[in-house]
């Protein structure tokens, strides 16, 4: 069985193997703490066993719900923010036809997203386009009280009820939320929506392998059983493999060794734009898990080769505080070769007959060598292929490494207290009832 691979050799000009391997015992101890639920934030480690715990019955229920939605709607709007949409968006974008929004012959509903911003123009245009379409809604919020999705849901629910009537709207709305708490649970019970539960011990950014990610992924037509199988394969592999060969432990150890050397920014790079949202998901995972107590590596991302023509200059010659982690896909899913041209004005006939991917791979290798020469350590994650199974492996790899890495940093990787600051300022500024004191104080600052 092939797994995703991690190589850290191109960091060894900057940290020694000993400096990485000094985390061996510690990282193994942290992995055990995650598995046994004995570390910091241990009431939020339900995700560790998710791939092996999720039952065939649960997966069948998600698939059946997806199927009944598919029969009714041409568009499914997933309403959620942060961990309540990034995992689904990451997997759906990675697996979808790049031009899915045009007519590509895909019989599955188009999945759109809302509630991930409060842009009036975005919502206007979404409502405008939906008014003439058969759509359904999957509203997702762990807390059930987040402002952004709640605003979008108000608007879309109203439109749907107007379009198809309250009864039919009820059949087209799925709510995914806490088992008992929060406004969304209350509303779902009141309206009689089909619901799925986000387990108490799984935080939003670790929830892609719950119905939060799985339902929208199934609606888009992807194989959630394969995705879970891949995650399970990585769960088993990372728990059974010695540190020296263990990609998740080595990733956690290497990034902490680099951080100790002043490399405070990690850039996740890809050479396939389908992975753009995998990086967005990864940024929330690592940013919210590690960025606290004035500590943590800042997670950034780039899409190569596009961004080599914009951010490439900085990476090559800017402040030497960065390291890169490149996700490389070994084998593309399609074949395109470069044609011969009789005039050869662009001078590219030497490439005629060769695969586009061969050029992409040399761009990747050339960039890695240039960046290492320029002072940027490089880690490399190789996925054998871009499919459900290896995305499942990648997701679990990043999650488990994140837990271990957070513990090495000695923070609680499973809370996000800092996110509240903007929310309370926003409510104070909007004069929300109950915020009178905060409103008074904030107005003095303006
Ligand atoms: O699922 P929800 O409760 O609506 O939360 C959605 C997101 O917003 C919060 O403010 C947190 O910072 C995120 O960790 C979370 O994923």
From TrEMBL:
**Sorted alphabetically, which keywords does the UniProt record give?**
Cytoplasm, Gluconeogenesis, Glycolysis, Isomerase
Write down the top EC class of this protein: isomerase
Biochemical pathway? Carbohydrate degradation; glycolysis; D-glyceraldehyde 3-phosphate and glycerone phosphate from D-glucose: step 2/4; Carbohydrate biosynthesis; gluconeogenesis
Q: Enumerate the active-site residues.
A: 288, 423
Q: Which PROSITE patterns match?
A: P_GLUCOSE_ISOMERASE_1, P_GLUCOSE_ISOMERASE_2, P_GLUCOSE_ISOMERASE_3
Recorded GO molecular functions are: carbohydrate derivative binding; glucose-6-phosphate isomerase activity; monosaccharide binding
Q: What is its EC number?
A: 5.3.1.9
- Judging by the UniProt lineage, the source's domain of life is Bacteria
Q: PANTHER family attached here?
A: GLUCOSE-6-PHOSPHATE ISOMERASE (PTHR11469)
Regarding protein family, the annotation reads:
Belongs to the GPI family.
Describe its function: Catalyzes the reversible isomerization of glucose-6-phosphate to fructose-6-phosphate.
Q: Which HAMAP family match?
A: G6P_isomerase
Q: What is this protein called?
A: Glucose-6-phosphate isomerase
Q: What is the lineage of its organism?
A: Bacteria, Pseudomonadati, Bacteroidota, Bacteroidia, Marinilabiliales
- Which gene is this protein's source? pgi
